[in-house]
TauD/TfdA-like domain-containing protein
Amino acid sequence: MKSTLQNKGWIEFQDINSEKQLIEICENFGKIIPHPNGNLIDILTPKESKDAKSLSFSKNFGLNKFPFHTDTAFLNNPVKYMALFSEETNDCPTLLLNFSSVLDNLDETYKKDIFKAIYGVQTPNNNFLSLLYKPFQSEFIIRYDECCMKPLNKSAKRIDVVLKKIFIDLTPIEINWTKGKLVIVDNWKFLHSRNAVNSSINRKLKRIYIN
Ligand SMILES: [Fe+2]
């Protein structure tokens, strides 16, 4: 299982029917860490902007499509794995985009920009500079979240425009939510998003971070 996640960048499980089972599977991949809001299991439901917590994607985008992003881009190192679990079937898929496929679609100049792009990361408690694509141990971490990151240097300003276009052009992997499905995604390799949702939809995902 671990090698599948390491090689493919995401893994799917079916028929999970208890929180105990959910936690046990997640613990196979590392240590479960709380979201900065303190929750070990965060509940995600679509919200209109007026009902959402400040600085959340729902605050910025409401029920509209979310842009592709890294989760916890505001941390010094974003979390390695993000687990999403759905107790019930819903018809709003999560979309995954392998950052290596983004790199494959860039010419050499833009590829250089990827490695040189510096963003300012802004949170209520912390402001810092970060590379968009940061070498870490034996791999790279992609960090991208337009809600808390602003392009600062020339490379970042140039590549930011290109990335937004590529995110529209590329076909993402669709995770269709069925009852009891768990998906664990490498948050250092994949960006994710969600399509626009109808306000009547019953979409509830549980999210767990793993390092
Ligand atoms: Fe997210």
Q: What stands out?
A: The chain has one domain: 2-210. Residues 2-210 form a domain with the Double-stranded beta-helix fold (CATH 3.60.130.10).
